[in-house]
């Protein structure tokens, strides 16, 4: 029986090898092989198939040290944007329940949040997306291979998949390759996947957008949350807006340890984690215990596993990312890269998706259009959301000079904050324009910032000017209406607080 089982196993392995390889014919097995099943890789593969290309996708996620795994869809679907936004929504609902009492809703006490219910619901949705991506690939005739891919030469990829303790290998040839693998997470962005039950005290190390988003929704569902900040919050974003975001978070209940760096972490016999940190300015050390540490210190490229060094693919030695040209090509013909793994590209899902679709059409000879990475809008889903498009005020000054820009701004109060008696001190917007009135950047903190910013992102792509804003009729009463009414300049020194309608 054992011999029969081994023979059957060998047959499956060899059959897999024969089915997936046709190297002896000297022809390419595929027009395009995509390594990486994240948002960009999936978008490119499906679009390439739609325009007549024969496509395969290799995707494999190495389990974490705790055995955490996830399915097809990449960082965004599994441990990034999707679970993050859902847990942000959970926190917003908690705030809405508090507001509801002021609006007349009779809500019995006590009100509490059940972590397990939220985590299960979020993970169920993520699993549905994993399955949906597999179905879409199948429907579009894209071959999906749950394998770790690496390049043998400029036309050959080998893949390894782990099934129990057995390894099955294969190699296949492709006319072109696309490298669209995600970065290896240095922290678990998908917090709902980490805990079986809700932790009580959490410390978040770092103050990037992901760090603040996680800290915000953890605070929002009632957890004792601290953020440790080494230097500044939201590096790379407009710093006036960053201060407004963190000020609101502090009022919201998130604690901040400013200008501090971690020195040591010890696990106590109780299971708690004792963190020792140092205040940079004074060199004084402090200690406290937490149930969980969230290392939100960024992600590292997984380029070393791809075999790129043997092929001469140029990589930035400092960042580990692949150096690409405007058309996403690398230093090796027929090998392309975009998304998080490409040097100088925004680490954003929508840019990867758009770039992937455009690349698919170029590779098929259907178009020559390049991806435009300028004026890409984004939103930080902190308790008070921050949306922006275009240049920060600092970058606008750097490029055009302080006298070469005009900044219009306003402090406003969302109508929904009034009856609820919520503080709107950090609800703010500003529009930066050049001396020719062309809008250089637009920044907004307030409710539904992402929904608001999407429309203004279109206007910037169309070359909107400050005059265009003034000519636009607002939708009353909305927060977005305040953007098209903005008329006080920073230079004037006048009070920018909006009064009345």
TrEMBL record:
Residues 30-356 form the FAD/NAD(P)-binding domain. GO terms for cellular component: cytosol; mitochondrion. Its cofactor is FAD. It catalyses: 2 glutathione + NADP(+) = glutathione disulfide + NADPH + H(+). Gene3D superfamilies: 3.30.390.30, FAD/NAD(P)-binding domain (3.50.50.60). One of its GO terms (biological process) is cellular response to oxidative stress. Catalyzes the reduction of glutathione disulfide (GSSG) to reduced glutathione (GSH). Constitutes the major mechanism to maintain a high GSH:GSSG ratio in the cytosol. This is thioredoxin-disulfide reductase (NADPH).
